[in-house]
Design goal:
Blueprint lengths: L15 H11 L10 H16 L5 H17 L10 H14 L6 H18 L1 H10 L7 H15 L3 H4 L2 H6 L5 H7 L4 H11 L8 H4 L10 H6 L4 H4 L9 H4 L5 E2 L5 E5 L14 H5 L7 H12 L6 E5 L8 H13 L5 E5 L2 H4 L6 H13 L2 E5 L9 H13 L2 E8 L7 H13 L3 E7 L14 H11 L10 E5 L3 E3 L5 E3 L5 E5 L6 E5 L3 H4 L10
Parallel strand pairs: 2-3, 3-4, 4-5, 5-6, 6-7, 7-8
Antiparallel strand pairs: 1-2, 8-9, 10-11, 11-12
Helix pairs in contact: 1-5, 2-3, 3-5, 6-22, 10-11, 18-20, 20-21
The structure holds pyridoxal-5'-phosphate and iron/sulfur cluster.
Pyridoxal-5'-phosphate (PLP) binds next to strand 2.
Length: 529
Amino acid sequence: MQCSQTNSVDLKKLDKFDIKLFELLYSSSKSKTEVSQKEIDEVKEWLEISKTSIRLTNPMVQLFVKLKTIKENHGATPKDIGIDKDELYLMAIKHKRTDEHAVSVGGRVYSALPIAKTANARVQNYLNNHKKDAPSGFDLQKQIKRNRKKIQEKLKMSDEDWDSYGGQIKYAIRSGEQLAQILDIPQKLIDDIQRVVGVFRMRISPYYASLIMPNVVNDPILIQSVPTGDMIDNKGINIEPVASDHSPARLIDQFYPRVLTIKATNMCAMFCTYCLRLDHISDKDWVSSKNTYEEALNYIRGNTTVRDVLITGGDALALSNKRLEYLFEELDKIPHVKIKRIGSRIPVMTPQRIDDKFLEICAKSNAIKPLRFVTQINTPQEMTPEVHEAFKKLSKVTSAILNQSVLLRGVNDTQNKMWKLVELLQESYIRPYYLFNCSFRNPEFGHLRVPISVGRDLVESMYGNIAGDAIPRYLATAGGKIPLHRDNVSQVNEGSDYILKKPWDGTEVSYPDMSMEEYNKPFSFDKYK
Ligand SMILES: *Cc1c(COP(=O)(O)O)cnc(C)c1O
Ligand code: SF4
């Protein structure tokens, strides 16, 4: 007997995914197991809802998902459980007609849902473990608050001092003994710190110290702020800073034609244990006179190729608001300077510095020519509610906030740590910009270095899993910034096919190129004349 509906089903309306799905559902199975009545009832119910519902696609998706599951688990075809094939064809056609983008139910069930499932699986380890592997300053708030209380008591620091930049610098921790007051650290480490601070300065703001977790051996905040004996024991030759090769004028560093830096101070709120400017920072703090800045500004005034000026240090925010206002105003007056940047890690070490006056200065200058804020955040643990607030305010008075991280051993050298860092940055209005491989130049921090390939793996692991604009570029600084990314592009035939590798799963796709011959042919709207 012929099925009466066959003639009314136009199978041409199915696409290749529908056809594959039907082939799968009706394929023969070696062994079959019994399908429970409950499962059969469920399928039949979805079939009824699919037939009667108007403008809904989900019932049809549910219907086919259930049928696919039954086939996969029990080997049973729709026929085996008493469902008519033509009715299913009609439902598949109805699905495609209903969907705005003419997506077939086969496409959804056979292809898209499994792809989404595989994609989700790639981030499960991260979602399950990031709080344990890479706790943020938000995750650790309870302990941070306890730390703060203890530090304030030990240092006899008022709330007012805590909330001001001046107070944070005044009460900064500068010796192993002071650190031992607020943190249970072994005597051996105290001795070691004492040995080092004779050579390299230590300075930790009480706020930043409150982020150190007690009893964590390799706490990422501790690693970045507390100098250890390695700094003097590491063997190796210090390679001269390249400054004199690249400083065409006082305070100025210039590597590139269109952008240069003004190293406006050597002061920092803290001395990072991996600082590339170690020699420069480790001297006494200095502030320059107006004359000095005038010399630097004159170089810029007379150099019309320069369009982008980066005010840095040390840390630019170690300068007074008044000094910064003067620099912005002078730069804004120079016609060929089109954009500006200010480089500072202070919002991370002492967010208290972001006061109303500074925000006002930024707003004023940004309204004249774009001002970008460049910062350095290395670990999720540095992301606290205070830091979040500071950057939220800054985001309203600048044209962009960019982050440069340094890849550091024990601080951010695993996937979960790096993924969490870049996601949190983005959630605090910051765009991950650069990731630096820690330099070979100073043996003092050689123990914090990470192999180039580890950084490459980390950055590549982000493609396809993390928002594209949260992925930093991976660089080395070696007489300028040099990209270190691995190549995902290989050419098969000269000038024709390329093979592209998907970084997230290694699969390759072919990518035919535009031929050079075609490209060189004349192209013009003249032909319409
Ligand atoms: C980093 C740096 C710049 C800015 O480089 P971008 O790649 O544009 O961010 C400019 N001058 C010097 C000396 C630098 O070190
Ligand atoms: S803030 Fe920057 S310049 Fe200052 S010590 Fe840290 S890395 Fe060096």
